[in-house]
Amino acid sequence: MASLASLATVLGAGATVYGTVRQQQSQQATARAQAQIAQQQQAARQQELAVQQEEQTRRRQQDLARTVAATRARLAASGPQPDEGSAAAVTGGLQQDAAAAQAADEEAYQAQLARGRASLLQPDGTLTTLLRSGRTLGSAARSLLD
C-alpha cells in the first residue's frame, strides 16, 4: 500500500510538472503574439511620426523659401543688392533660424521615437515557470523520501 501511495505521488508530481510546462508553453505563445502586435503598432507609430516629420520639414522649407524671396524682393525694391551686405545678413539669419528650428524638430522627433520603443527587459515568465515546476518536483521527491 505504501508503494501505491508513492507511485500516486510520483504520478501526481509528473502531472503537475506536465501541466506547468503546458501552461508555460501557452504563456510563451501568448507573449510572442503580444510582442508581434506591439512591434507592428510600434512600426505604425514610427511610420506616422516619420510622415509628420517629413511634412513639417517640407512645410518649413517652403516657408523659408517664401520668406527669403519676399525679403529679397523688398530689399531689391528699396535699392540694395539682395545678396550683398546687410541684405545678405538678413537672408542668412533667416536661413540660420530655419536650420535651428529644424534641428529642434529633429530632436523632438528622435525623442518621440525613443519614448515609443518597447523595453528589452519585459518579462516573459519562462524562467519563473520552470523554477516553479522544479519546486513541485522537489516537493514530490521529498515526500517520497519521508
User: β content, as a range?
Assistant: under 5%
Question: Could you tell me the number of beta strands?
Answer: 0
> How far apart are the first and last residues' alpha carbons, in Å?
15 Å
- Sheet bearing the most strands, described? none
Q: Could you name the ranges where pLDDT drops below 50 across 5 or more consecutive residues?
A: 119-123
Mean pLDDT: 76
Please state the CA-atom Rg, rounded to the nearest Å: 33 Å
Overall geometry: rod-shaped
Number of domains: 1
Note the run of SSEs as H and E: HHH
Which range best describes the helical content: under 10%, 10-25%, 25-40%, 40-55%, 55-70% or over 70%? over 70%
Structural class by secondary-structure content: mainly alpha
Q: Supply the number of helical segments.
A: 3
Structure explained in plain terms:
This protein is mainly α and 146 residues long. It has one domain (2-145). 88% of the residues lie in helices and 0% in strands. The chain has three helices and no strands. The chain has helices spanning 2-77, 85-116, 126-145. Helix 1 (2-77) packs antiparallel against helix 2 (85-116). The longest helix has 76 residues, at 2-77.
Annotate the secondary structure layout.
Layout: H1 2-77, H2 85-116, H3 126-145
Helix pairs in contact: 1-2, 1-3
Keywords:
mainly alpha, 146 residues, 3 helices, 0% strand
Structure described in brief:
The chain is mainly alpha-helical and 146 residues long.
